[in-house]
Write a sequence for this structure.
DNA sequence: GTAGATTAGTCCGATATCGGACTATTATCC
DNA sequence: GGATAATAGTCCGATATCGGACTAATCTAC
């Protein structure tokens, strides 16, 4: 029967994975087009919280972006390698590290917002505002399964 | 403004990534509950095509599952390690490798279908059939951006 | 004020995925 | 039938992510 085949071959899991991949490719291409080819989509987990408050700690960044501390360690290393942040030891707590934006990252901020807005506009152009909102809602519902 | 904040912090990309992650966790938990804890969600890329035609080649598997040949090489190694497939050299083409299901994999097939059906049912119970179909459609639309 | 608990961050190893470069084999074409 | 092209698969290194175990520093309670 077709039902079973569709359940395995056009699986919701498959669609979610591919859509996520595709989104990230579009985002990276957008950043590159605007002169920030070194910025990977995942860097958002570091940069976005810092745009709202520079100098946060590793653990705080991980918590705000809903990733593990291990992931944040790896990620900050890459973002630092690419010159967008710098780490400094916290003077008040010898265990902690504070992460600071560089000028390059500050220059990137409007580009990030613009690229995101462009992508959102493209999605709305394709799906329509109502279906786009309903997609949003459906994804959040899935998370509570 | 709130619009910008939502665009960056409750990003569609973020939701897609997290929903995909969550789906895979649910799937792995389901397999484990039914006695196949060793089966990872990604193994579907190997097993599903083989359920429809055992003994396919690496490249054919990669093509059918829309992953790269490199990914398939890695994946088949893991699936073989876990005892679900065996590789044999193709007698008609010395470059090619054919992948065959083991008895354990054949025993897993109905479990896979059952678990997938359970998950689909849970999604429909949460979203309703119409919103579930529209989610499906919206994700496919995204892929053509 | 020191012993024990907690916290911050990293190291290690695993899964999952890709692009580029490579090797081995087969096919093609004069 | 031998040079060249194409194909099958793997190796290497990269990104992205996690859990468990570890180290170093701080806090807590006596």
């Amino acid at each position: 029967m077709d039902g079973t085949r569709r359940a395995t071959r056009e699986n919701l899991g498959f669609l979610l994975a591919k859509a996520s991949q595709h989104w990230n490719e579009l985002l990276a291409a957008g950043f590159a087009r605007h002169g920030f080819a070194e910025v990977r989509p995942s860097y958002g987990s570091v940069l976005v919280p810092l745009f709202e408050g520079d100098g946060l700690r590793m653990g705080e960044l991980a918590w705000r972006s809903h990733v593990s501390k291990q992931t944040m360690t790896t990620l900050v290393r890459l973002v630092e390698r690419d010159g967008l942040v710098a780490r400094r030891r916290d003077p008040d707590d010898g265990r902690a590290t504070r992460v600071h934006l560089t000028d390059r990252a500050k220059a990137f901020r409007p580009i990030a917002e613009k690229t995101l807005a462009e992508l959102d506009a493209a999605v709305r152009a394709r799906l329509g505002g109502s279906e786009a909102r309903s997609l949003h809602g459906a994804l959040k519902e899935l998370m509570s399964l």
Remarks:
- DSSP finds seven helices and two strands in chain A.
